[in-house]
Specification:
Layout (H helix, E strand, L loop, with lengths): L12 H23 L7 H14 L16 E5 L2 E3 L13 E10 L2 E10 L8 H23 L4 H13 L6 E2 L5 E3 L6 E5 L16 E4 L2 E3 L5 E3 L6 E3 L5 E3 L2 E6 L2 E4 L7 H4 L11
Antiparallel strand pairs: 1-3, 2-11, 3-4, 5-9, 6-7, 6-8, 8-13, 9-12, 10-11, 13-14
Helix pairs in contact: 1-2, 3-4
The structure holds 2-amino-4-trifluoromethylsulfanyl-butyric acid (MF3) and cobalt (II) ion.
């Protein structure tokens, strides 16, 4: 074990069922928020919509106040990769927007992100749509790998293999930011890399809950943080996409905590059937 490596929090089934409730609420809040995306709406308005859905169920964003973060969601537009702060900037048709949100319910955290093109497919640069689609599918490949994995490193290997083999222009997998364990806090050990390394990572066993969150770019991997201390942008201005789910490993299988169907529809083509937490 590396010096400074912290212990992983393994959950009981009862605790994972509470995490599933947090995740389902988050999924509904993201549904409502994403449904409101259209040209002219501001990312601050989206932030309010998201916060209202959580509040109606007695929940609050775990982003708000996290290390001083000033909003309930992250809204990252175009060359912004992650951690974009909602503002009064109106969205424009053809913008690529990632909405990243988290909820805490009865002390249990969830974290999930989705990317959309403002104005839909008709307004989209096909290369942006492809970027988002490949990022989303790479997330599902990582989740499917977790279902059969003995070690956490197999997730990043599956994401990397899928992205590397995709036909068409090469996309980059960001390395500066990674996924994480999740449970009684939003960010917990272990790190969940989105790329293949020589390290196998920790062993996968029941009670492990991970936020898997590939970030793909159409250009180089170098990023900068803006003067607001949060917004991560690509150094070359190339566009980025980000998809994320929180996933539980239990004795009978895996369950995608932040997907309405536990991941069933997206995992079936990959030969994985998620199982509700016993
Ligand atoms: N999904 C994001 C992450 O894991 C959540 C960031 S919350 C913030 O990095 F408050 F730090 F923005
Ligand atoms: Co996260």
């Amino acid at each position: 074990m590396a010096f400074g490596q912290q212990r992983i929090e393994y959950k009981t089934n009862e605790q994972m069922r509470l995490m599933a409730a947090s995740g389902q609420l988050l999924s509904r809040a993201l549904d409502t928020t994403l449904a409101a995306v259209r040209p002219g709406i501001t990312t601050l308005e989206l932030d309010g919509i998201f916060a209202d859905v959580l509040a109606a169920s007695g929940s609050v964003s775990n982003f708000l106040g996290y290390s001083g973060y000033p909003a309930s969601i992250c809204t990252s537009v175009n060359e912004e990769v992650v951690h974009g702060i909602p503002s009064d900037r109106p969205l424009q048709a053809g913008d690529i927007l990632s909405v990243d949100g988290g909820a805490v319910l009865q002390g249990w955290h969830s974290d999930s992100a989705r990317t959309v093109i403002v104005g839909g497919q008709a307004a989209a640069d096909p290369d942006d749509q492809r970027l988002s689609d490949l990022t989303e599918e790479s997330l599902w490949r990582g989740i499917a790998a977790l279902a059969a994995a003995s070690h956490v490193g197999e997730i990043g290997a599956a994401i990397d293999d899928y992205v590397s083999a995709a036909p068409g222009p090469a996309l980059g997998i960001l390395q500066d930011y990674v996924g994480h364990g999740i449970g009684t806090a939003m960010h917990m050990p272990p790190d969940v890399l989105n790329y293949r390394t020589s390290s196998k990572g920790p062993r996968v066993r029941p009670g492990l809950c991970l936020a898997i969150e590939p970030m793909l770019v159409r250009g180089g991997l170098e990023t900068h943080v803006l003067a607001d201390d949060w917004t991560v942008v690509t150094a070359d201005g190339a566009r980025a996409a980000h998809w994320e789910h929180s996933v539980a490993v239990h004795e009978a299988g895996i369950w995608v905590l932040t997907a309405a169907d536990g991941g069933a529809s997206r995992l079936a083509p990959l030969g994985v059937i998620p199982t509700p937490i016993p």
